[in-house]
Amino acid sequence: MRRTQALKSPSATFVALAAALAAAGLAYQPSYQTAEAYVREGEFDRAIPIIQDILATNPRDLKARNLLGIALSSAGRREEATLQFRKALEIDPAFAPVFKNLALNELALGQYRDAAGHFQSALKTAPADPVLHFGLGEANYALKRYGQAVNEYDLSGDLYLKDPQATLRYAESCLEAEKPAAAVAALKHLSSSADSRLHFQAGLVLARGDQYAAAAHQFQSAMEAGYPDPYEAGYNLTLAYQKAGDDTHAIESGRQLIARGYRKAELYNLLAQSYDHSNQIKEAYDALRTATELEPRNEDNYVDLVTLCINHENYDLGLEISDIGLNSIATSYRLRLERGVVLAMKGRFEDAEHEFELATLTSKGISLPFVALALVRMQMNKLPEAIDVLRSRRRLNPNDYLSDWCLAEAISRQGAEPGTPQEKEAVRALEDALRVKPAAGQAQTLLGKFLVKRGDLDGAKAALERALKLDPDDTTAAYQLAFLCRKKGDVQRANELFAKVSKAKAEDRDQVTRRNLVKIIREGSQ
Hints:
The protein is mainly α. It has a domain at 397-526: Tetratricopeptide repeat domain (Serine Threonine Protein Phosphatase 5, Tetratricopeptide repeat), CATH 1.25.40. The chain contains 31 helices and no strands. The protein has helices at residues 10-23, 32-40, 44-57, 62-74, 78-91, 96-109, 112-125, 130-142, 146-155, 159-162, 164-176, 180-187, 196-208, 212-224, 230-243, 247-259, 265-277, 281-294, 299-311, 315-328, 333-345, 349-362, 368-379, 383-396, 401-414, 421-436, 441-454, 457-470, 475-487, 491-503, 509-525. The protein is elongated and about 100 Å long.
């Protein structure tokens, strides 16, 4: 049987010819084809001198200059390559082949803005080239033009799926461009056997985009692929499950970490949240107690434990925990605040006032303790004292919406009449509060009440409608709006609102103030 002789590639033929002639001592005139053959064979050090000789004879040879740029770039001499590509464009700004090579080289050098411009120029002559679209996508990603990056990546076909790092960049661009479903779908293409660090980074990217269920899958893959720090991956997995509302798996994941010997306060704290959400209250208490024992100087764990006590009306235990915490961290204004809330919920307003006063001394100017102090003074009918505290905070920081709203509430309770300086001050404070935080529903409700008294029924109706949209359970807003609707002849709407109010459980002013106190401190502590 005859053997079939393998055919040599054209580039191999040129290289062999050059070598044979040199061995025979014959003169061989270097040519573009020879240099091109060397480039194809990866013999860049041989190709470069030949091309330089060609350009010495004919500096305007665009093909040779482009080839020199390719050879230099392939040899890792990218700055020199860029210089050659740009010289080619100086000779002929319309020389299309150089745009792609220059753009790819600039992309590798991190010259993203220049690369983007040259990719766009190259696309004018090759609008369907997937490599150009992919390169432009990469440049746009680096320039934080995420929407444009997604469009270009999509036009590259599946090139962004060929490289796991590019897939990750595509997913990040999608999340920034508010296309979370596309990000999740792309990252599903990552092989389970991909590098564990890549899966971990994918989990972080998805978590930043609030795609917690998908993030959990990536963190799980990172663990299975042998992520170097099992605790870091496991904690993030537990957190992702918890953020996704999957408390069952969060608890399972957290317990597995503890079983492996990772007894860390932050992990017990996280577990406590899932236990609480799952109505496993004893387990939640135990987890937070363990957290305080592991890190007795970390106020977060004490604060969260007292909060748990307040949520479940276990006020005596809350006082006990706050005492323990303050023995370890005497200057914690947050613990003083929590202790004050517990005392207020027990009806011990003078003691609560004392705790809030102490909190103002160690809060380093933070407004929350002052607002809490003013609220409890309102509860005690010490309205002038409450107003004085809030006015001083407003002078220090006119952009503090809590102080603004509470000041207006205190003035309202004093019975300020329309047109008086006090009433005008209250309305200005509410307007400032809503400018800073338009979603402050209670401020909208209070503004509506002031506008009703002023006779500005249209303005009042608009404010109360906004308040109800923000909080459909706001019975005060519903009640006020019902009267307005009746006055304006909208009987059906008025009856609907009155029915809503009548179904709600009546609360006295004491209950409202206590509830507001808890709510404000929760919001202000975040």
